[in-house]
Write a structure and sequence with these properties.
2 domains; about 45% helix; two-stranded antiparallel sheet
C-alpha cells in the first residue's frame, strides 16, 4: 500500500485489474492444465455449435430450411452461441498477448472506465492473430502509463487492417524524432527510392490521417539555426546532425510529420531499423551543396539539456 492505495505490479496486478474491469474473478498465479478429457469436451461442444444438420429441402433449385418456430429459434441460438464464443476467443487471445508484454516489476494503473469499456468492445471483434498482438500491446501500454493511447487511437485501430498496418510499418525505418519531439520522415524521393518506399503508399497514409505536411521545413542557416545542428532520435539512439562549414547557405528539409494517432500506433509496431538511414540523410545534404560538409555525432549518454532525452535506453 502506498498512501492508502494498493500498488499493482506485474501479472498479479494485471489479473486484478482485469477482474475488476470485466466483472469476473481470476485467481492470480492460477495455472489451468487442460486434460485430454477437457479437450474432448471442448471439441464436442464446438462440433455441436457447428452442426448444420437441420432438415432442408430444395425448391426450384433454392435451398430451404424447415421454418417452424422451434427450428428458427434453435438456429438463432446456435448462431448467437457461435458469435459469443468467437468474441470470447478473440478477447482471451488479446488478454494473453497483454500478459506477455507485462513484466513483474511493471507498476500498473487501471485505465478509466470509458477507456476500458471501449477497448473491450473493440477487442472482442479483432479476429486476426497479428492484430490481436497489437491490441495486447495497447492494453499493456495503457496499464503501464495511463493516457498512452487515446480513445481516438482506439477508434482508428478498430478499423485498421493487416495490410494497412504493414504499409504503416514500412515507413517506420525512415522515421526520426527531431528536437521539438515531432516524429517525421524527410520528404525526399531519393530516400524513398533507396529504402524502397512507394510514394502512393505514403499518400494513402496521409489520406488516412497518419501523416501531415510539416508547417515549415527544418533548415541549416545562421539566421534560422545558429547552432547549425539538428538533434535526432533514431532507434532509441541520440544524434546531432551538424554542419561543419560556416557559410550562411540555407539548406532546408521538408518533412511529413506523424499525427498524434500515428505516434501512438508507432509505439506498438516493431520494425527493423535501417542503420544506414542517417548516413543517407548526410549524403543527401552534402549533395545539395558540395561546398558544405556535415557530420553525425552519436550522443551517449544523451545530454539532459536536449529535449526528449532518456538515458535509460
Amino acid at each position: 500500500m502506498v498512501g492508502g492505495l494498493e500498488v499493482l505490479t506485474g501479472l498479479d496486478g494485471f489479473l486484478k485489474i482485469l477482474s475488476d474491469a470485466l466483472g469476473i474473478i481470476i485467481e492470480p498465479r492460477k495455472r489451468i492444465a487442460i486434460s485430454e478429457a477437457e479437450k474432448k469436451v471442448a471439441k464436442n461442444a464446438n462440433e455441436i455449435l457447428n452442426n448444420t444438420d437441420y432438415p432442408t429441402t430444395f425448391d426450384d433449385g433454392l435451398l430451404k430450411m424447415q421454418s417452424t418456430k422451434e427450428d428458427i429459434l434453435a438456429r438463432a441460438k446456435t448462431r448467437e452461441n457461435k458469435r459469443l464464443m468467437k468474441k470470447q476467443n478473440n478477447l482471451e487471445s488479446v488478454i494473453g498477448h497483454t500478459a506477455k508484454n507485462i513484466d513483474e516489476k511493471d507498476v500498473l494503473t487501471p485505465p478509466t472506465d470509458e477507456w476500458v469499456d471501449r477497448f473491450f468492445e473493440y477487442a472482442e471483434n479483432i479476429t486476426t492473430e497479428k492484430l490481436q498482438y497489437l491490441w495486447g500491446k495497447v492494453l499493456a501500454g495503457e496499464l503501464k502509463k495511463t493516457g498512452s493511447f487515446s480513445l481516438r487511437t482506439l477508434d482508428y485501430l478498430r478499423s485498421m487492417s493487416i495490410k494497412e498496418a504493414e504499409e504503416f510499418q514500412k515507413i517506420l525505418p525512415i522515421s526520426i524524432i527531431i528536437g521539438n519531439g515531432d516524429r517525421c520522415i524527410v520528404d525526399e524521393h531519393t530516400l524513398y527510392r533507396k529504402f524502397e518506399i512507394d510514394y502512393p503508399d505514403l499518400i494513402k497514409l496521409i489520406n488516412r490521417g497518419l501523416l501531415n505536411k510539416a508547417d515549415k521545413p527544418i533548415g541549416f542557416s545562421q539566421d534560422q539555426n545558429p547552432s547549425n545542428s539538428i538533434f535526432i532520435v533514431y532507434n532509441n539512439n541520440y544524434f546531432l546532425l551538424s554542419r561543419r562549414t560556416k557559410e550562411n547557405q540555407i539548406i532546408r528539409l521538408t518533412m511529413y510529420v506523424f499525427t498524434d494517432i500515428a505516434k501512438e500506433i508507432a509505439s506498438i509496431i516493431t520494425y527493423k531499423p535501417a542503420d544506414e538511414y542517417l548516413q543517407a540523410m548526410k549524403d543527401l545534404l552534402e549533395k545539395r551543396d558540395p561546398s558544405l560538409s556535415f557530420e553525425i555525432e552519436k550522443l551517449n549518454p544523451c545530454p539532459r539539456k536536449l529535449p526528449n532525452c532518456q538515458n535509460d535506453h
